Amino acid sequence: MTLRDPEAGHATVLAAGSIGALVIVLVAALLLTSAVIASHQARAAADLSALAAARGSAPSCDEARRVARLHRATVHECRPDGAYVDVLVGVLPAGAAARFGEAQARARAGPETGEELSGGDDRTGP
């Protein structure tokens, strides 16, 4: 009768466990990355939609929806407030992260108030 080494096979179990943990971390990182990308897209779409809506003599929510659609976003709320416009948009993350819901962002745009920007150097002197 031969005795087997009691340590035999432990490396296989350790390697399988390590690979499983690595796969879980990788999937979590991919989900997080997808959510962050959707958040950035939502913020950009909200800013651009609000700016587009505020352009012109009267705010136009139709223009906000058109610009949001170009950025694969959906306008959930568009409220003109005088010369200003508030926009809330949502972007659905890609892949499996879509199960957790969409990323939303809000933006407000309108005419510039206060002093006009000079666009140059305000320093005086030699």
List the helices and strands and how they pair.
Elements: H1 10-54, H2 61-70, E1 74-81, E2 84-91, E3 103-109
Antiparallel strand pairs: 1-2, 2-3
Helix pairs in contact: 1-2
Q: How confident is the prediction overall: mean pLDDT?
A: 85
Helix share, percent: 40-55%
Write the element-wise H/E pattern from the N-terminal end onward.
HHEEE
- Contiguous low-pLDDT stretches (5 residues minimum) are 115-126
How big is the Rg? Answer: 26 Å
Gross morphology: rod-shaped
Strand sequence of the main sheet, in spatial order? 1-2-3
Strand residues, percent:
15-25%
Structural class: alpha+beta
Please outline the major beta sheet: 3 strands, antiparallel
Total E-strand runs? 3
Query: How widely separated are the two ends?
Result: 100 Å
Number of helices: 2
Keywords: Membrane, Transmembrane, Transmembrane helix
Organism: Mobilicoccus caccae
Transmembrane segments: 12-33
Protein name: Secretion/DNA translocation related TadE-like protein
Summary?
The protein is an alpha+beta fold and 126 residues long. It has two helices and three strands; from the N terminus they run ααβββ.
